[in-house]
Amino acid sequence: MGIPDFGIAKINSIYNNRTVLFQKTFSVASDSGDNIIFTVTGSVLVKSIVVRATAAASANLTSIEVVAGSGKVISLITALDGARANIAAEDQQISWVGSIELGNGKTGICTYTGVGAGITAQLVTVEYIPMTSTSLLS
Question: Where are the domains of the chain?
């Protein structure tokens, strides 16, 4: 008698369970609104996101929020966590750790809210696992 198949046979199709890092630099106006961090090709499992200030933030910046998915339904870093006080000085960082699966064409977005056009600069690092050999963030 063989081992019963309970619908879990596809678990081995995850592409080598290798973690990949994707980085994007932003130097944008404090009130620039939505900026795309990444777009998914294929399917990926996002494990963490780190937003690091690469320079002192403009006094015009109010907050940074990071969301993902269709219609920005997945909140990863809230505006409260991304308040200017938490990301104002060079090398200050805000982050999210967990697991979300995103399919083809889905995006990650960084929303900048502020009261003026002063420039703010961050490096966003995304840790993810591609679900197939052709899956990636770009």
Answer: 16-137
**Identity at 3, one-letter amino acid code:** I
- Tens of pLDDT along the chain (138 residues) come to 554 444 444 444 455 668 999 999 999 999 999 999 999 999 999 999 999 999 999 999 999 999 999 999 999 999 999 999 999 999 999 999 999 999 999 999 999 999 988 999 999 999 999 999 899 999
Largest CA distance in the chain: 70
Any alpha helices (H) in the chain, and if so which ranges?
A: 84-87
Listed in order, strand segments (DSSP E) in 1-138 are 20-29, 33-41, 44-53, 61-68, 74-77, 93-102, 107-114, 119-130, 136-137
Closest to 51 in 3D by CA, of 108, 130, 113, 122: 122
Topology annotation, domain 16-137: Jelly Rolls (2.60.120)
- Provide CB contacts within 8 A for 118, sequence distance 6+: 29, 30, 58, 59, 60, 61
Query: How far apart are alpha carbons 54 and 88 in whole angstroms?
Result: 10
